Amino acid sequence: MNKTKVISFIKSNTMILMLILVTLFFVWQTGGKILFPQNISNLIAQNAYVFILATGMLLCILTGGNIDLAVGSIVCFVGAVGAKLMETYDVNWIIAVAFMLVMGIAIGAWQGFWIAYVRVPPFITTLAGMFIFRGLSNVVLQGLTVSLTDKAFIRTFGGGANCYIPDFLGGDGFNVTAMLAGILTCIIFLAVKIKGRIEKAKKGYEMESIVAMITRSAVISAVVLVFSYELALYRGIPTALVIVAIVVLAYAYITAKTTLGRHFYAVGGNEKAAKLSGIDTNRIYFFAYTNMGFLSALAGMMTIARMTSAQPTYGQNYEMDAISSCFIGGASAYGGTGKVSGVIIGAVFMGVINLGMSIMGVDANYQKVVKGGVLLAAVIFDVVSKKKNG
């Protein structure tokens, strides 16, 4: 019986265990450099766009394994328009941000209309969007780089040297605010887990063993505390992390606790059955791609803020990073299966691989080979699992 529980625990936590093993491998190969506080902070800054885009991409994938190939081009186009507004036309950054968000939503709605109501395949619609908005980015920027000078915009969206939350508790060389935030996060996480288990017990639902729950909770809490300690040793909490946390928590709640979230899983599981049960499947598709446009705009703002400029080449392969994070994090290639928490683990997994190989000085071409192999392995695992269960 114990052996069965161990096997079940390993299966349900495969990606967490793989993430730990990969991290330990790079700790060994880099002499511990990957865990330097500055590298941990860079991991967040460099992959913030992945977390944002992958969260939105999950909703597209849930509808039946569909993807959005245009997100990288939308990131570039929205960022280009925003940079031109702020720098060339001297538009206030708050107005520019509002315009960029509206523009992202409009682009997402435009693609969502063709996919949801005309039933043009998502692959074709978003492939067209990828070319269209990449081309428009070049038109807007005229092939040139536009540098950003608005410090308020740059700082708010995670760029520049001062893109960190101030230490309100006045730590000397150690950011007490960052450490306290980590402790509070663990307390809230444990309280939610305990409350959820009590509610399941009252309703008579099947639950994982108490040992498995304690083990998982202890590991996650330990990771959060170590992560917070590393940030506290550097400059504290990056503003990009705050934005990512808000997005992740909001969409985790939507997918897990709302009727809209359940509809996504229903459509992905069996669209015809979902339609017969009264779900407006067209609306679900439309929302998924409109939402993807909104999050692409947000990622665009974070990208130009981090780079303090806009270029026609920004956003290249962003869609691949987002898609990879979803599938590596457990989203099914067939749709109907996947969680935001899994997507975040997948994004961190990809970030650790990128950072570790960069520190080791691995050639960029070999990095692509490794990332492609990891993605293929994740999808093969999903397909084989589905066949076994079937």
From TrEMBL:
Keywords: Cell inner membrane, Cell membrane, Membrane, Sugar transport, Transmembrane, Transmembrane helix, Transport. CDD domains: TM_PBP1_transp_AraH_like. Part of the binding-protein-dependent transport system for D-xylose. Probably responsible for the translocation of the substrate across the membrane. This is Xylose transport system permease protein XylH. GO terms for cellular component: plasma membrane. It is a multi-pass membrane protein. It is found in: Cell membrane. GO terms for molecular function: transmembrane transporter activity. Coiled coil: none annotated. InterPro entries: ABC_transp_permease. The keyword Membrane applies. The chain crosses the membrane at residues 48-81, 93-117, 174-192, 213-231, 237-254, 284-305, 340-362.
